[in-house]
Write a structure and sequence with these properties.
By secondary structure, the chain is mainly alpha-helical. The chain has one domain. Helices cover 78% and strands 1% of the residues. The protein is built from 10 helices and 2 strands; from the N terminus they run ααααααααββαα. The chain has a two-stranded antiparallel ribbon with strand order 1-2. A hairpin with a 2-residue loop joins β1 and β2.
């Protein structure tokens, strides 16, 4: 059943990745925390293991999603180039910061951040700001660094931060989603490498891990999410932009609330 749960999590995360331009981490992290808890993994490593495994799977999911969006002209590569280096730097630093934070507190931080972003997406700035000129390249690099830092700490592909930033910057919602999917790749690669490195000397790690990455979970989730991300990307180019934005907010509301309650319950 452990493998079945991994596949179900991967399928839902992949669909969300394609639809919303996220890496699926806001789905994968809460589900992995639940799975690892049910299967009696050491409590002190559960959250970090969930985040590291999530980032590893997001590398695969983001690749599938960005390929599907790029075929439909949904990726602004100029913005991606300006943000990519900042995303990598921020992700590596974020992995080191997360290693120093208690697992339960990390859950609370992730959940609170997701809830704030959900409220923003649901109730603020629902009109696309297509007349706004793109920010200077330096601003895009700075935004990439901040997004990479937060995303690595949270174990997400950054879509919950990148999509609102790109939409605010003047990109249409569908192009914001596609470009966000592309931004998830450097975040995930750098973040996963950081979590694999910082977790290599941690005591009480379960078998079948490389640092804070659960190998079987990574493989099962990646296969399912890679396939479903393409389905989600197709739907993203059919559904109205406002519907996408509201659905994205509801997704964050649910996932953030679950993590916040879980983390507070263990403090």
């Amino acid at each position: 059943m452990l493998y079945v749960w991994f596949v179900i999590a991967g399928a839902f995360a992949g669909l969300s990745a394609g639809l919303f331009g996220v890496g699926g981490g806001m789905i994968i992290v809460p589900v992995l925390v639940w799975i690892f808890t049910v299967y009696a993994f050491p409590p002190e490593v559960i959250t970090h293991l969930a985040i590291g495994t999530s980032l590893a799977t997001i590398a695969v999911t983001s690749l599938s999603s960005l390929m599907a969006h790029n075929k439909r002209g949904g990726v602004c590569w100029e913005v991606w180039r300006h943000m990519a280096l900042g995303l990598v730097i921020g992700s590596l630093v974020g992995a080191g910061v997360a290693d120093m934070i208690d697992g339960q507190m990390l859950q609370v931080i992730i959940g609170a951040g997701a809830l704030l972003m959900a409220l923003k997406m649901l109730f603020l700035s629902n009109k696309e700001q297509l007349d706004r000129p793109l920010p200077h390249a330096g601003v895009q690099f700075g935004a990439g660094t901040g997004i990479g830092l937060a995303s690595s700490i949270f174990g997400i592909g950054g879509g919950s931060l990148t999509v609102p930033f790109l939409n605010w910057s003047g990109l249409p919602m569908r192009q914001s989603v596609g470009t966000s999917a592309a931004c998830g790749l450097p975040i995930a690669l750098a973040g996963a490498a950081g979590f694999a490195w910082f977790g290599q000397d941690v005591a009480n790690m379960p078998a079948g891990t490389i640092g804070f990455i659960h190998i079987t979970g990574f493989l099962c989730i990646s296969v399912a999410s890679f396939a479903m991300a393409k389905v989600g990307a197709k739907l993203a180019h059919v559904l109205p932009a406002l519907t996408l934005k509201r659905a994205f907010g509801v997704l964050l509301l649910f996932a953030g609330g679950q993590l916040l309650l879980s983390g507070l319950g263990m403090l």
